[in-house]
Amino acid sequence: MEEISTIRSAEFLPDLAEYTLIQSAKVSQEAPSNIALVKYWGKKEIQIPTNSSLSFTLTKAKTKTEVGIEKKSGEGFEVVVYFEGNQNEKFKEKILKFFERIHPFVPFLQSYRFEIHTENTFPHSSGIASSASGFAALALCLVEIEILLGADFSPQKKQLKSSFLARLGSGSACRSVYKGLVYWGENPNIKGSNKRFAIEAPFEVAPVFKTFRDTILLIEEGQKKVSSTAGHALMENHPYRDRRFELAEENILKFQEIFKNGDLKAFVALVEQEALGLHSLMMTSSPPYLLMSTNTLVAINLIWEYRRQTDLPLCFTLDAGANLHLLYPESCQEEVGEFVKEMLAPLCSDKKYIEDTICW
Ligand code: DP6
User: What values do phi and psi take at 336, rounded to 5?
Assistant: First the structure.
């Protein structure tokens, strides 16, 4: 097995002499969404995170992408993008920017006309970020094409290159090419850790975590008021920046212990601390901003009250938005299901929520 930590970006540069440019091909891939436990918040050029992150990969919430290629002559990129059956110019712009960025590592991009069809299993306006699953699915397709052209990748190299390319589309996307618990970043205590691609977290995981579920409360649908890109940029001059970056690394190591010994109380406390920590960074940015809505706060208080009464290991986390992800083991699925239906669904937009699981 290749020593992951020795792989440098240059090793993702293809050997063009090995390739045969076929006339046309079609590939399809899917990639799930992921939810971070330790949040990636702050980055350097290009898509290099300022701290490590750790995430769970979901099962049902995913993006399915089909890429057709047709040989062309001349320079430049030719791309047509269909989202849920309709041509989509906004996605095309994002993909062209992505192609510009990854071109040195995937030089056949200019030799083909690309027709990309993509769709999500979750509602488009649901407020679930589709950039992670979207860029991961597209990166997996491109690596698949590279293999059709002659690249000789081991299964491990295939995953690493997909993660490396996906990162250049959207940071959190690099974690979506793996199942289970995924780590991205550099921490001297974690073997194989690096900032250029994610790896399966090299942690021992107690069986209870393999039964975890994620119920996503769709509290606010539609576009975010402040994009993640803008949020990452505000970390550059953030007054709590240095301590936050240290804290994230400390939390990674705390999670390593928690996953090993199955301490659900400690898990609940740390997951919520990270989630509220992320939003406190937003509230103390310059300018400050809020992405939680009134109903997010009402729901958090209900969850805390419910936990006081039942002592069940149910916790919440948040991404850069108002929606809450409820994490809990399967053993309390029935009780939590009732609680969600009765108390939390009324706080959701059209009472909508998504019941998902962590995919191992
Ligand atoms: C709060 O991956 O969406 O979800 O790299 O600019 O595309 P870009 O940012 P993005 O940021 C995700 C931030 C987060 C935390 C996380 O998923 O780790």
Answer: -65, -40
